[in-house]
Amino acid sequence: MNFAEAWIEHDYNPFIVFDTSGKILSLNQEAQYLLGETSHKKIFDLAQTYANISYGFKTTILDIDFDTYKFYGITVGYQDENCIGIKLYKAPSKKFAKIEENGKKINIYTALDLCISASSTNGSIKFKKDFDPTLPELIINVEYFMKLLSKIYQSYSKSQTITTKLGLVTGEHIRYNKKKYPIFYISITGDLRDFMQEKYIEELAQKSNCIIQFNKTQTIISSALISQRKS
After folding, report:
1. CATH 3.30.565.10 residue ranges in the chain?
2. What is the C-alpha to C-alpha distance for residues 231 and 133, in angstroms, rounded to an integer?
3. How many CA atoms lie within 13 A of 140 on its CB side?
4. Over the stretch 73-82, which tens digit does the pLDDT of each residue have?
């Protein structure tokens, strides 16, 4: 691997090269993480849609969401009919003001199940779960965190289906006081979301030391994964 190839491999932004049929010819480390969130066909279709009419490179500024990944633009390039490449530019995420290590321990799976159970009193809603089973107990402000989860589920009370995903944000960490913490996320998606609840949800997220992101049908919580109290 030469210097240019190594640079691409360690780029913060995903980079993928396809052949004419959509088969992946090469990709960097960040692209591998992205393909854990979405299909390579969606990325290939995106490259074809925004490619230059003639050979060359074209950069387009647009907002793109793939689950926990957000992008503000892409560059698509090709020099012949044999392959096409795409680079996606990751949008900067909100920063955590501080890391709170003195909260209470919580089993995140139990917390989610309790909130889902409370929300399932409306028997017409179908709940789906996709949980990473490897997360340890977390240290967090339990009171506000449970209120946050409950309020988010409440904002989807008119949905037919609510899907909850739990996992780690791959390849990203938070640095605070010379320590490095992984980031966990909870993605809640439904058919209909009450946008009027956003302000209160944001207030609860701040009190829980979580970052909140809203899409049209999706709410994403992210926070530092703290498993040991401050010594």
Report:
1. 104-224
2. 27
3. 28
4. 999 999 888 9
Q: Quick check: 55 pLDDT over 60?
A: yes
- Report, at the CATH architecture level, how domain 104-224 is classified: 2-Layer Sandwich (3.30)
**Residue 74: exposure state from Cβ atoms within 10 A (0-12, 13-18, ≥19):** buried
Its sign, for the CA torsion 204, 209, 210, 211, is: positive
Looking up tokens 């107990």 gives 137
Tokens describing residue 90: 């990751």
What's the mean pLDDT in 174-179?
74
Quote the CA–CA distance of 208 and 126 in Å, as a whole number: 27
Calculate ∠ Cα 111-112-115, nearest 5°: 90
Residue 179 pairs in a beta bridge with 176
Torsion of CA 32, 71, 108, 209, to 10 degrees: 140
- Amino acid identity of residue 5, one-letter, is E
**Domain boundaries for CATH 3.30.450.20 within the chain:** 3-90
Query: What are the distances in angstroms from CA 105 to CA 79, 111, 140, 141?
Result: 55, 11, 7, 9
Identify the CATH homologous superfamily for domain 3-90: PAS domain (3.30.450.20)
Is the full-model pTM beyond 0.70? no
Separation in Å, CA 87 to CA 66, 81, 106: 14, 18, 39
Residues paired with residue 224 on neighbouring β-strands, in sequence order? 183
Query: What does each C-alpha distance from 91 to 15, 63, 169, 218 come to in angstroms?
Result: 15, 9, 14, 17
